[in-house]
Every structure is written in C-alpha cells, then in structure tokens.
Amino acid sequence: MILAPISRLQAPGLPESDLTAGKTVIIVGYPHKDGTTEIRAERIIVDGRTIELR
User: Which domain of life does the protein's organism represent (predicted)?
Assistant: First the structure.
C-alpha cells in the first residue's frame, strides 16, 4: 500500500493522529498496471469519515 506523504493526507482533513497503530481503517485503491504488488490509495475511510486523496 502506497500512501501520500502525511502533509498531503493532512490537507484534506486527515490528521496524523487518526492513523495510529492498531486503528481500523478502510482503504480504497487500485493496483499498479505494471504488475507490481503496490496498491495506490484513492480514499481512506476512518472513524466514519471519507478522505479523498486524488
């Protein structure tokens, strides 16, 4: 899973404190087209809030 730098996550309203170890989040994304195992995150759902990353 590839996430944006924390500054890009904070801009749309996701504080770093919402991404603590052990917290359950839903990440919606897509795999790279080149066949690698990386997944690019498009949105994160945490505490009932949806944060769009793209």
Answer: Bacteria
Structural domain total, the chain: 1
31: helix, strand or coil: strand
DSSP state of 12: T
Helix (H) or strand (E) holding 28: strand 26-31
In the chain, the N- to C-terminal Cα span, in Å, equals 15
Q: Is the whole model's pTM more than 0.85, yes or no?
A: no
Examine residue 1 and state whether it is found in any structural domain, yes or no: no
The answer as to whether 31 is a domain residue is yes
User: Which of 34, 33, 30, 38 is CA-nearest to residue 54?
Assistant: 30
